[in-house]
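Appendix C: a fully annotated inverse folding record. The material below is reproduced so that readers can follow the format used throughout the book. The structure is listed first as tokens, followed by the designed sequence.
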């Protein structure tokens, strides 16, 4: 019994370290994943390996996180044929918001702005790319054509992160 308790204890101690070592970081390679369109139809992540991707992975519970940064990007949009940007709404981490209502809001926003917005109802992107904990976070990801993460931020952006974001973006404009 002592041995079993020891093994369970060791597993509990090693597991978090192992899992955190597996979490994506800048330099991590990513592969294809499916997400859903605003009508909840599965689609492949667009342009992976064909264009540089700027992905806004947002928990709708924290829609106002980085509001000033997002508003600045809306006013000063990144104009480049080399960069495809889109949003993915993390529906799984917003259990109190009915998915049908969020999807209706997304369809309205797409119609108004022409923005490309997808959904992730079951952590398809989070788990497919080993993003780790993304609950209550605005996640900003830049993936180059070689499928390598060049920028990754979760939560509130610091000024240093904003500067680094623009450095990476300007490299690919």
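Designed amino acids, in order:
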């Amino acid at each position: 019994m002592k041995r079993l308790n020891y093994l369970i204890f060791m597993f509990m101690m090693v597991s978090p370290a192992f899992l955190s070592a597996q979490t994506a970081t800048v330099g991590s390679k990513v592969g294809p994943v499916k997400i859903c369109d605003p009508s909840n139809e599965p689609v492949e992540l667009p342009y992976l390996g064909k264009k540089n991707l700027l992905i806004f992975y947002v928990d709708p519970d924290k829609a106002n996180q980085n509001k000033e940064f997002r508003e600045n990007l809306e006013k000063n949009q990144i104009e480049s044929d080399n960069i495809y940007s889109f949003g993915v709404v993390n529906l799984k981490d917003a259990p109190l918001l009915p998915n049908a209502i969020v999807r209706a809001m997304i369809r309205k926003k797409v119609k108004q702005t022409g923005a490309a917005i997808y959904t992730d109802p079951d952590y398809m992107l989070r788990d497919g790319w080993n993003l780790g904990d993304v609950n209550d976070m605005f996640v900003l990801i830049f993936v180059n054509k070689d499928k390598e993460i060049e920028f990754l931020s979760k939560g509130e952006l610091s000024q240093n992160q904003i500067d680094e974001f623009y450095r990476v973006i300007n490299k690919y404009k």
